[in-house]
UniProtKB/TrEMBL annotation:
One of its GO terms (molecular function) is carbohydrate binding. It comes from the Bacteria. Residues 191-345 form the Glycoside hydrolase family 31 N-terminal domain. InterPro entries: DUF5110 (IPR033403), Gal_mutarotase_sf_dom (IPR011013), GH (IPR017853), Glyco_hydro_31_C (IPR048395), Glyco_hydro_31_N_dom (IPR025887), Glyco_hydro_31_TIM (IPR000322), Glyco_hydro_b (IPR013780), Glycosyl_Hydrolase_31 (IPR051816). One of its GO terms (biological process) is carbohydrate metabolic process. Residues 1-21 form the signal peptide. Residues 752-824 form the DUF5110 domain. This is Glycoside hydrolase. Gene3D superfamilies: 2.60.120.380, Glycosidases, glycosyl hydrolase (family 31), Golgi alpha-mannosidase II. Residues 503-638 form the Glycoside hydrolase family 31 TIM barrel domain.
Length: 870
C-alpha cells in the first residue's frame, strides 16, 4: 500500500540498517558543514542541531540552504570523497557507508544524498534507527540532506567512513572430520559443514570466532551433518570429499573451490581469496564461459543477471530497477545455488569474475547442488516452502478505504458491500476485499461487513499500518486476509520477515483458516508466509512491460506468489487496465487497488473495478476473470506443487527449457510460462500486434484459434486486438477446469469437471490433479485427494485414462460428470467410454477449432474410466 507521498522513488543505493553494526574507525566530529574522506581521513562524523518538531514532510518541506543557514529546519552536510582510481573495483562495501543515529530512537529522521549535479544517489527513508545507506562508488562531493520528519526535541549523530580492505592470507590450520572441518588463515577462522541433502555450509569470520546473527529467523532448523566425509592432502590444497562433491581448500593463499565427485569438474572456484573491509566481506569466483545467473528474489524488470549487478536490499523503489523484495540467494546454470544466511544487504556482480558481498564482516553461505528446480527446492526446504493459499486467495482481490475516505468523500465500511454487489451483478469473480486500505483508515461494523462479504462468496481482509496486535479480535470477527505495509514492515529484513510470520500465525491461531498475508517489503523466507507485491507504481506501457520478467524471475528464488496492482495504483487508463488484467489472470494472485488513481487523460479521480470503464472493456475484463476462475483447478494444483517442491507457477521459459539459448534472448524476456503448459506473451505496447513471440521446441497451439506452431520459432505480426492475449498451450498439456460461467469456488458445480486435452504426437502425457477443501488446514493432516489422468495418441486412436480420486476431504463429491475438449486434426469416427460406444449426442466436433467435445454421464469418483476416440 502507498508509501507516504513524500518518499522519492528511484533509490539507487542499498538501504543498510546493519552498517553501524560493523566495526568502524572512531569518527572525529566535524564542526564545519562539511568534511573530506581520503587516504588521510578514514572517517568523519557530525552532530546535528536539536529539532523541536518535525517537518511532517519530505525534502519538499526543507527550505533552500540560503533560507535555512543554521540548519534549523533540515540538516545539511557536504561530504567530499577523494580516492584513487579503481578503489571501489573490489571493495566489499562498494561505496561510502553513511548513517545517522538519533538520540531518541522513537523519532524519525530521513536521509538523502545528492551528487554535485543534484542527482539523488542514495537514500534511507524508513523507520529504522539508525538510518543508513551507501554512496555507491563514491568519488567527488556529495550533499547530505537530513529531514527531521517526525521528531520531538531530538538530534542525531551522523557518521561516514572509507572502507579499508584486507585479504585472507595463507592457510595456517586445517582440522576436522565427520562432516565438519575448521580452517584457519591468520586471524580468519572458517568452517565447512557438509549437510544432509547434499548441502554445504561455509562460514568465515576475520574476528577469529564464528557468529550467527541470523540465528533461527530464516533457517528455522539446521540440517544434520553428513558425517560420511573424508579429507586428503593434494599438495596445493586439502580436499574434503563427500558423496556429492569435493571441496578444495587451497593453501597459498587460502581459497575455496567446489568440484564434482570426480574432483575435476568445477562447480565454482574462487579466483581470489576472501576479502573483508571495515563493514563487509566478498567472495570472488571465476565465471564460466556460458554461465547464467538467476535469483535475487524480486528484481524489478529482470530475471537473468549475467553481466549485471544485482542489489540485495530494500530500496523502496517500486519501479524498474528496484529490489524491495530481494533475497540473498542466487542460482547458477553451472549446477548450484547459494543462500547467504544474513539480514545484511548485499551487492552481487555477475561479471568476470563474479563478486558477491554482504555488508557484514563474515561469510555464511549455504550451497545447493543440482539443476535449477532441485536447487530451488533445496533452498526453500531450508528457508521455508511457499505457503499453501486458500482457494479464495487465488481469486481476484479488491482494496480500498471505505471509512472517511479523503479521496472519495464520506463513506462507511459497509459501503464495501456495494462494491461486492458490483462484482456479483457483473458476473465477475471476487475472492476477498480489503475494506480499510489507506493510511489512517479504520473500520466499523466489522462482523457485519465480514458476513456481508461472505454472502457474496468473498472474504474480509484488513490492512494494518502500524501493528498486528488487533489481529486476534479481527480474525474472530471474520478477517481472513492481512495486508502489511511499509509503516509496519519498516526497512524490511528481519522486521518484515517477523511481521509476515506473525500475521500468518495470527490468522491461523484464531481460526481454522489458512493464513493469507500480503506485504511489499520482505527478505529470504517470506515465501513461507506471504504474497509479495511489487509496490506502488504509476501506470504506463513500461509498467506492464517490466513486471513480466519480475514475477517470472522471482520464482527462481522460490517466491511462488508475486504480483502487482492491476492497472497500477496511481493512474488509470481503460486500455492499459484491460491489457494488464489479461496477463495477470495467469498469475496465481491478483488485486485491484482502488481509491488512489486518477484518470490518465483528465486527471480526475478514477475508480478501478473491472467494470467501471464500460464496453468493450467490461466484457473483455469479464472474459479473463472468468477464465482465471475456470483455471483454478490447474492453478491450485500448481500451488500444491509449489508447497511441495518450492517451484511456483509463473516461470521464465529457461526454467523449463534450460538447453534452449533462445529462452534467454531479449524476446523471451517479456513472456512467461504459467505452469509448464501455458505460454503467455503479454501485449505491453499500444498496439493490436505483438512481435517477437518466442516459442521453444515442440508443438504449440494458439489457445484462441487452434492453429499450431512448431518451435523453436519466433512469431512476428501476431494479431492481438484488445480482447486477445497471445496465449499458447504446450503439446501434451492436460488442463483441469471448472465449468463455463463459474464465478466463485463456492458456487461452482462440484459435480462437473472439465478437461482441456492437447494430445502429444509422441508418447504418453500425464497429469495429477490435486484437490482439498480449499480453506482449512486439514490438508496438512492428509485431508486431500489426487486424480491421475494420462493421454496417449496412437495410430488411429486417442486414449484418455482417468484414474480414481484417491483420498478424502470435507465436501468431496461422490461422483461427477466430465466435459472433455480434445484437440486434434480430424473428427473421430467413434467415441467409447470403458469400451461402450457413446451416442452421437454425447460428443461433437468443431472443424474450425479442430476440437472434439465429449460429455460423460456422472461417474463415481471411487473408480477410474477410459475414454477412447477412434
Amino acid at each position: 500500500m502507498p508509501w507516504p507521498s513524500w518518499v522519492p522513488l528511484g533509490l539507487a543505493a542499498i538501504l543498510a540498517q546493519a552498517v553501524l553494526a560493523a566495526p568502524a574507525p572512531a569518527a572525529a566530529a566535524a564542526q564545519a558543514a562539511g568534511a573530506a574522506l581520503d587516504p588521510a581521513h578514514s572517517s568523519v562524523g557530525w552532530q546535528s542541531p536539536v529539532y523541536a518538531k518535525g517537518t511532517g514532510g519530505g525534502t519538499e518541506s526543507c527550505p533552500g540552504a540560503a533560507a535555512d543557514p543554521d540548519n534549523k529546519v533540515c540538516d545539511r552536510f557536504d561530504l567530499t570523497v577523494s580516492v584513487p582510481d579503481g578503489y571501489w573495483d573490489d571493495n566489499p562495501e562498494g561505496g561510502v557507508p553513511l548513517s545517522i543515529k538519533w538520540e531518541k530512537p522513537s523519532d524519525d529522521f530521513d536521509l538523502y544524498v545528492y551528487d554535485d549535479h543534484g542527482k539523488q544517489v542514495a537514500s534511507s527513508a524508513g523507520t529504522a534507527d539508525p538510518e543508513a545507506t551507501v554512496i555507491p562508488r563514491a568519488s567527488g562531493t556529495y550533499h547530505v540532506l537530513v529531514v527531521p520528519y517526525d521528531v520531538h526535541d531530538n538530534s542525531f549523530t551522523g557518521t561516514a567512513y572509507l572502507p579499508a580492505t584486507t585479504d585472507a592470507g595463507d592457510l595456517t590450520s586445517f582440522s576436522g572430520g565427520d562432516g565438519s572441518y575448521t580452517i584457519g588463515a591468520g586471524s580468519l577462522t572458517a568452517r565447512a559443514d557438509f549437510l544432509t541433502g547434499g548441502q554445504l555450509r561455509l562460514q568465515a569470520d576475520p574476528s577469529g570466532s564464528l557468529s550467527d546473527p541470523a540465528g533461527t529467523a530464516i533457517v528455522r532448523r539446521q540440517p544434520a551433518l553428513q558425517r560420511h566425509t573424508s579429507s586428503f592432502d593434494a599438495g596445493d590444497y586439502y580436499g574434503i570429499r563427500s558423496s556429492e562433491a569435493v571441496l578444495r581448500v587451497y593453501k597459498k593463499p587460502l581459497r575455496f573451490g567446489l568440484y564434482r565427485p570426480d574432483n575435476r569438474t568445477r562447480i565454482w572456484q574462487e579466483d581470489k581469496p576472501l576479502r573483508w573491509s571495515t563493514g563487509g566481506m566478498r567472495q570472488s569466483l571465476e565465471r564460466g564461459a556460458d554461465e547464467q545467473f538467476f535469483g535475487g528474489g524480486e528484481q524489478n524488470g529482470s530475471f537473468s543477471h549475467r553481466g549485471q549487478t544485482m542489489y540485495v536490499a530494500n530500496s523502496f523503489d517500486w519501479n524498474e530497477g528496484g529490489y524491495n523484495n530481494s533475497q540473498p540467494f542466487y542460482l547458477s546454470s553451472a549446477g548450484y545455488g547459494v543462500f547467504r544466511n544474513t539480514f545484511a544487504p548485499g551487492v552481487y556482480t555477475f561479471g568476470s569474475p563474479v563478486t558477491t558481498g554482504q555488508q557484514e564482516r563474515r561469510l555464511d553461505a549455504y550451497y545447493f547442488l543440482g539443476d535449477a528446480k532441485h536447487v530451488i527446492g533445496a533452498y526453500t526446504k531450508l528457508a521455508g516452502r511457499p505457503f499453501m493459499p486458500p482457494v479464495y486467495g487465488l481469486e481476484p482481490g479488491d482494496s480500498d478505504c471505505y471509512l472517511h475516505n479523503a479521496n472519495r468523500g464520506e463513506r462507511h465500511t459497509l459501503d464495501a458491500l456495494k462494491i461486492a454487489d458490483g462484482y456479483t451483478e457483473n458476473q465477475m469473480p471476487l475472492g476477498w476485499m480489503l475494506v480499510n486500505d489507506g493510511y489512517g483508515c479504520g473500520y466499523e461494523n466489522l462482523a457485519q461487513t465480514a458476513q456481508g462479504l461472505q454472502d457474496h462468496h468473498a472474504q474480509l481482509g484488513l490492512w494494518t499500518q502500524d501493528g498486528i496486535e488487533k489481529l486476534a479480535d479481527q480474525v474472530k470477527a471474520g478477517q481472513r486476509v492481512a495486508k502489511l505495509d511499509v509503516a509496519w514492515v519498516g526497512n524490511g529484513y528481519k522486521f518484515a520477515l517477523d511481521a509476515c510470520d506473525a500475521a500468518k500465525a495470527g490468522i491461523e491461531d484464531n481460526s481454522d483458516a489458512r493464513g493469507f498475508v500480503w506485504l511489499p517489503v520482505s527478505w529470504a523466507g517470506a515465501q513461507r508466509c506471504g504474497v509479495l507485491w511489487s509496490g506502488d507504481q504509476k501506470l504506463s506501457w513500461d509498467y506492464i512491460r517490466w513486471q513480466i520478467p519480475t514475477y517470472a524471475g522471482a520464482t527462481m528464488s522460490g517466491i511462488a506468489y508475486n504480483t502487482g496492482d492491476v492497472g497500477s495504483i496511481y493512474r488509470h487508463d481503460a486500455k492499459m487496465y484491460a491489457r494488464d488484467l489479461q496477463w495477470k489472470a495467469f498469475l496465481p494472485a491478483i488485486m485491484t487497488m482502488d481509491g488512489w488513481a486518477s484518470d490518465l487523460t483528465t486527471g480526475k479521480p478514477a475508480d478501478q473495478q473491472p467494470w467501471r470503464d464500460g464496453e468493450p472493456y467490461t466484457t473483455i475484463n469479464r472474459k479473463y476473470l472468468q477464465l482465471k476462475e475456470r483455471l483454478l483447478p490447474y492453478m491450485y494444483t500448481l500451488s500444491a506443487e509449489a508447497a511441495k517442491t518450492g517451484v511456483g507457477a509463473v516461470r521464465p521459459l529457461w526454467l523449463e527449457y534450460p538447453e534452449d539459448a533462445g529462452t534467454l534472448g531479449a524476446q523471451a524476456k517479456y513472456e512467461f510460462l504459467s505452469g509448464p503448459d501455458f505460454l503467455v506473451a503479454p501485449v505491453y505496447q499500444d498496439s493490436d500486434t505483438r512481435d517477437g513471440i518466442y516459442l521453444p521446441k515442440g508443438t504449440w497451439t494458439d489457445y484462441w484459434t487452434g492453429r499450431t506452431y512448431q518451435g523453436p520459432t519466433t512469431l512476428n505480426g501476431y494479431h492481438a486486438p484488445l480482447d486477445t492475449l497471445p496465449l499458447f498451450v504446450r503439446e501434451g498439456a492436460i488442463v483441469p477446469m471448472w465449468p463455463k460461467g463459474t464465478t466463485s469456488w463456492q458456487t461452482r458445480d462440484r459435480h462437473e469437471l472439465d478437461w482441456d486435452v492437447y494430445p502429444s504426437a509422441h508418447g504418453t502425457s500425464r497429469y495429477t490433479l490435486y484437490e482439498d477443501d480449499g480453506v482449512t488446514r486439514d490438508f496438512a493432516k492428509g485431508a486431500a485427494a489426487t486424480q491421475r489422468v494420462s493421454v496417449h495418441a496412437g495410430a488411429g486412436a486417442t486414449t484418455v485414462s482417468v484414474g480414481a480420486s484417491n483420498g478424502d476431504y470435507t465436501g468431496k463429491a461422490d461422483a461427477r460428470s466430465y466435459r472433455f475438449t480434445v484437440h486434434g486434426d480430424t473428427a473421430p469416427g467413434h467415441v467409447f467410454l470403458d469400451g461402450r460406444q457413446l451416442p452421437d449426442s454425447a460428443w461433437s466436433f468443431d472443424s474450425d477449432s479442430q476440437v472434439t467435445t465429449i460429455r460423460t454421464p456422472s461417474l463415481p469418483l471411487g473408480r477410474g474410466f477410459t475414454l477412447r476416440l477412434t
